[in-house]
UniProtKB/TrEMBL annotation:
It comes from Cafeteria roenbergensis (Marine flagellate). One of its GO terms (biological process) is L-histidine biosynthetic process. Gene3D superfamilies: 3.30.70.120, Periplasmic binding protein-like II (3.40.190.10). GO terms for molecular function: ATP binding; ATP phosphoribosyltransferase activity; magnesium ion binding. The keyword Amino-acid biosynthesis applies. The lineage of its organism: Eukaryota, Sar, Stramenopiles, Bigyra, Opalozoa. It is found in: Cytoplasm. Its EC number is 2.4.2.17. Pathway: Amino-acid biosynthesis; L-histidine biosynthesis; L-histidine from 5-phospho-alpha-D-ribose 1-diphosphate: step 1/9. This is ATP phosphoribosyltransferase. Residues 238-310 form the Histidine biosynthesis HisG C-terminal domain. The keyword Disulfide bond does not apply. GO terms for cellular component: cytoplasm. It catalyses: 1-(5-phospho-beta-D-ribosyl)-ATP + diphosphate = 5-phospho-alpha-D-ribose 1-diphosphate + ATP.
Length: 314
């Protein structure tokens, strides 16, 4: 207690901001049930915001930061609720924005890039689009859960086809009950297990965060939403990067090393004890680390440390 009181006294602005957060305008948050849930919960957790569900069947989680009224909902419903204005912020797939024809009716505020999928047309016959006919010469039957997307695609391709709406397990329909399916694919294992070949890629999708137009028009809510986006984006940025720290001892040309570092902004450089050289710290894309570390060594760098970053705000 004494420690907490001392910390609060030493950093009054930070503690006051944390307390004030609970009195900020309420944001009605829709979290997604289903396969997107764990990734979204982890994104919040990595930003220091804990989402707690009372039990597995509870749909009203509590959020440890800010002033959220949170609910767990199916992503397809979330998008509709943002349009009708009963939720302020929510998560869903870009595919369902297109399927429900909601482009311009909800505001995309962040692409988490999580759960990437492709919406593809697939068939047992890889040449089905060339032949344009179905099993035994019948008119093509094209099955999908995505009604709008598929019917638009049929038109664009100029196919003479009957559309069949499915409710899951779409890959099981060909060859008897359908000639082509339109479905999402991530690893491709369901298509493969059912002997289906991709004949066209229609679009790509990922888990995105959306806001209602009304919430974005409300100054108070918008400010809170932007704070949330900044925090979640900082996790996304950090996940793509690593912190590389190294020493460059006296006698090496620090300026020429700094010039060669792959960073958009200036790296942090601090002087070593007794003017023995410099410690350099730079956040770099993870994929560059294996190339960068040997180069640092070749430039005379020592004591190279590569660490994970949890949040990065530019
Ligand atoms: N591997 C995947 N398979 C299916 N949908 C995925 C996948 N990865 C991401 N998604 C996205 O998840 C959303 C579908 O969510 P939804 O909750 O309806 O399905 P689900 O998570 O599979 O749940 P359920 O098992 O209850 O059907 C879509 O936007 C879809 O693009
Ligand atoms: O490319 P993959 O990694 O195999 O993933 C794609 C599959 O996962 C989903 O099915 P889901 O498990 O949600 O069942 P459903 O078809 O009944 O919706 C989706 O509809 C595909 O069938």
């Amino acid at each position: 207690m004494a420690d907490a009181a001392a910390a609060a006294a030493a950093a009054p602005e930070v503690y006051a901001a944390a307390e004030a957060e609970e009195k900020m305008p309420e944001i009605r948050l829709a979290l997604c049930k289903g396969r997107m849930k764990d990734g979204v919960f982890k994104l919040f957790a990595d930003a220091g915001i804990k989402i707690t569900l009372g039990n597995e069947r509870a749909y009203r989680p509590t959020v440890s930061w800010g002033n959220f009224d949170a609910k767990l909902l199916k992503p397809q419903n979330i998008l509709g609720m943002l349009v009708q204005g009963s939720r302020d912020v929510g998560f869903g797939g870009h595919d369902w924005v297109l399927e429900l024809d909601l482009e311009g009716k909800v505001v995309e505020i962040m692409d988490t890039k999580m759960d990437p999928v492709r919406i593809v047309a697939a068939a047992p016959d890889p040449d089905v689009l060339k032949s344009g006919v179905g099993r035994g010469g019948r008119k093509l039957i094209i099955a999908s859960e995505y009604s709008t997307i598929t019917q638009k695609w049929i038109k664009e391709k100029g196919l003479d086809a009957t559309f069949l709406r499915t409710w899951g397990a779409t890959e099981s329909l060909p060859p008897e009950d359908a000639d082509i399916i339109v479905d999402n694919t991530a690893t491709g294992s369901t298509l493969k297990a059912n002997g289906l070949h991709i004949v066209d890629t229609i679009l790509t999708s990922s888990t995105r965060m959306f806001a209602s137009k009304a919430a974005m028009a409300d100054e108070g809510k918008r400010a809170e939403i932007e704070k949330l986006v900044m925090l979640l984006e900082s996790v996304k940025a950090a996940r793509e990067r690593k912190m590389v720290t190294f020493n460059l001892l006296k006698g090496h040309d620090i300026d020429s090393v700094i010039e060669k570092l792959p960073c958009a902004r200036m790296p942090t450089v601090s002087e070593l004890y007794h003017g023995g050289g410099y410690a350099v710290q730079v956040a770099v894309h993870s994929k560059l680390v294996p190339s960068l570390v040997p180069l640092i060594k070749s430039w005379g760098g020592t004591d190279v440390i590569v660490t994970a970053i949890s949040q990065l705000v530019s």
